[in-house]
Amino acid sequence: MSYDSSNIFGKILRGEIPAHKVYEDDTALVMMDIFPQSRGHTLVIPKMPSRNLLDADPQVLSAVMPIMQRVAQALKRATGADGIRLAQFNEAAAGQTVFHLHFHLIPAYDGVPLAA
Ligand code: 5GP
C-alpha cells in the first residue's frame, strides 16, 4: 500500500482544512482529535508523508518521539489526567482509518473506563 496525499491529515497539513492545532514545528503537527475518545484526546502527526509505521522513515520516528513525550507531559498537566494512553494503528485491519502516519495521545482518568 502506498501513500495517497488526498487523505484528511494531508489536507490539514497543507492548510486546506482547518484543525484545532496545539503545536507545530518542522517535524510534526499536534492537534485535537475531532471525535475524542476521552477529554484531551490529541493526535501527533509527522509532516513527512508516510502511510503508517510500516513505511515511515526511521529518522522521522526518532524526531517525533521527543515531541510525543513533551505533548504527553503537557497534556497530563493540562487535563489533570491520571495517565496517558499512546495508540497507533497500521492498516484498516488494525483499525487505521486515516492513512497518514499519526499517533494518539489519549488521557485516562481514574474511574472512567477506556474506550476499547
Ligand atoms: P485512526 O483510526 O486512523 O488511528 O484514527 C484517526 C483519527 O482521526 C480518529 O480518532 C478520528 O476521530 C480523527 N479524525 C478523523 N478526521 C479528522 C479531522 O478532520 N480532524 C481531526 N482533528 N481529527 C480527525
UniProtKB/TrEMBL annotation:
Where is the motif named Histidine triad motif mapped on this chain? 100-104
Please give the superkingdom of this protein's source: Bacteria
Q: Where does the HIT domain lie?
A: 8-115
- What is the protein name stated in its UniProt record? HIT family protein
Taxonomic lineage from the root: Bacteria, Pseudomonadati, Pseudomonadota, Alphaproteobacteria, Hyphomicrobiales
Q: Which residues of the full protein are shown?
A: 1 to 116 of 138
